[in-house]
Amino acid sequence: MDLHGFLKALARRWPTVVVCLVLATGAALAATNLSTPVYEARTQLFVATRTGDDTTQMNEGQSFSQARVQSYAAIVTTGQVTRPVVKELRLHTTAEELASRITAAAPLNTVLINITVRDANPKRAARIANAVAQRFSTVVERLEAPKRAAGSQQTGKKQRRAAAGSSPVSLGVTQEAVAPAGPVSPRPLLNLAAGVLGGLLLGAGLVALRETLDTTLKTSQALGEFTKLPGLGTIPYDKNVPRQPLVSANVHSPRAEAFRKLRTNLQFSQVDEPPRIIAVTSSVPGEGKTNTAVNLALSLAEAGLSTCLVDGDLRRPCVASTFGLVQDAGLTTVLIGQARIEDVMQQAGGQLSVLASGAVPPNPTELLASARMEEVLRELADTHDIVIVDTAPLLPVADTVGLASFTQGALLVVRAAKTSREQVRTAADSLDRVNVRVLGTVFNMAPVPRGNRYGTYGSYGELPAPRVSDPRKEPAAATHLAGEK
Q1: What sign has the CA pseudo-torsion 332, 336, 338, 339?
Q2: Omega within 30 of 0 (cis) for the link into 186
Q3: What's the CATH superfamily of 39-145+168-175?
Q4: Burial class (CB in 10 A: 0-12, 13-18, 19+), 250
Q5: Is the separation of the CB atoms in 112 and 169 below 8 Å?
Q6: At 304, is the secondary structure helix, strand, or coil?
Q7: What letter does residue 247 receive in the DSSP assignment?
Q8: What gap in Å lies between CA 370 and CA 394, rounded to an integer?
Q9: Rounded CA gap, 279 and 342, in Å?
Q10: Domain coordinates of the chain in residue numbers?
Q11: What CATH number does the domain located at 217-446 have?
Q12: What is the pLDDT of residues 231-274, one digit of tens each?
């Protein structure tokens, strides 16, 4: 999927992105509100060496301090420092937990040590930081103090304790900790930005995943590229179809224009050998094959062609109910020899005749694949310019495979964003195995682009309606026109 396709997918699935954005932003705001504020107090120590006035000794002491200051920073979180602080400040915590809230860093080429303490209370954080700095200075100076061994043994004693000398280093506080004015976490703006970014990334990821897993066909171009079959028509989606399935109810609708275009493309697609018996089928139920067959037949009849519409879906017949005709007598009645074609043929107005399905038989596959079915279709072709046969879906049942072999071509109806690629491929292969010529595809229930008014004759091809003037408001003009007549 290229960038253009991904952007179109984002536009098509924008509700997914919006939901992910709202959820991620809400989670970020909730985490911010539920988080305990954390404050940081900082103090700074300066490490100096006790030297005389000799410049050489001072330089050596400086180098000594820089060399050991990194080691000093590691002592800040040891128990020698934290345990006395916990006891001194009477903190309700352990030395180990306090150590986890203390960080110490020594910038390179300096003799400074920065100590940071985090706590939920700003004043307590400052007290802890100052106490840690004082205790840390004492520990370091004691560790650096040289030990003197006992000079002699005394009677009755095994050993005398060594006396401590003075430390060569001293630590001074250059910056005492003060109570911070605001918390360092949570950060509302940062959390909100992270939530927005995370929501967008999550939404984009879900869209990409759904597009990868979604094998349905979204456009007529994609259908043509996949099947290598001519796309004879694209029928736009219309929510009023269940109530008004026939396009003749609104002759200027986009659907009516789409069926007229389908009729024209069908007539020009096979100029040298025009088919007269055409099966209209689909891969699975619910793709709109019956509605396509009915309105295609209506469009052909409007063009002056003597058209016969046959309901060949003997399992779920819908043609008769669409036109409000009788369904009990029809194709099955003729196939079993109980009536002639002209006895059960019904008129749907103008040049359109309808042969309903008749009673639902127990063996529809055998009836549709019988020699009598072929004879019926030939008789209809002899008395009509074109015969449209509405058939059952290809994949659930085998009815259409036997019937389609008696026709001169088939139209494969594919529902937009519903029929999978595998279903379309399997349906086309099943027709190819019985040597049925697929005339082309009909992309049904396609989304209508916003602002597209082509076909309504309101923006292209239709003359504006004349303005009717009120004679009472324009008496002079009315009198002038009357005089000209």
Answers
A1: positive
A2: yes
A3: EIF_2_alpha (3.30.70.1130)
A4: middle
A5: no
A6: coil
A7: G
A8: 18
A9: 21
A10: 3-35+186-212, 39-145+168-175, 217-446
A11: 3.40.50.300
A12: 999 999 999 899 999 987 557 789 999 999 999 999 888 777 88
